[in-house]
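agent> Task received from the user: take the single chain below, predict its 3D structure, and emit structure tokens. No templates, no multimer pairing.
agent> Plan: (1) validate residues, (2) run structure prediction, (3) serialize to tokens, (4) report one or two observations.
agent> Step 1 OK, no nonstandard residues flagged.
tool_call: predict_structure(input=
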Amino acid sequence: MGGDDGFSASELRQRYSRGGTAKDSELSAAQLRARYGIANKPDVGMDKKGGANSSGQSSIATMVILVCILAAAGVAAAVFLQ
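)
tool_result: status=success, residues=82
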């Protein structure tokens, strides 16, 4: 049983809602997100291991490779046509 099991819903709201009697430093991360209305979206910008999501990085890498290939083809065409 948790420490809050004996409280009524009204008492919990008074304690944990914004302006409640519990200090922010006493609350868990989930309770702070609930107090300030912050959504918990662990998949936004993070991969499963907690690192930065690489989808943006792979898009940039793809564009760089494509530009390099096009530049190389342009140089090869210029050399071939001389």
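agent> Step 4: summary for the user.
Helices lie at 9-16, 29-36, 55-81.
agent> Done.
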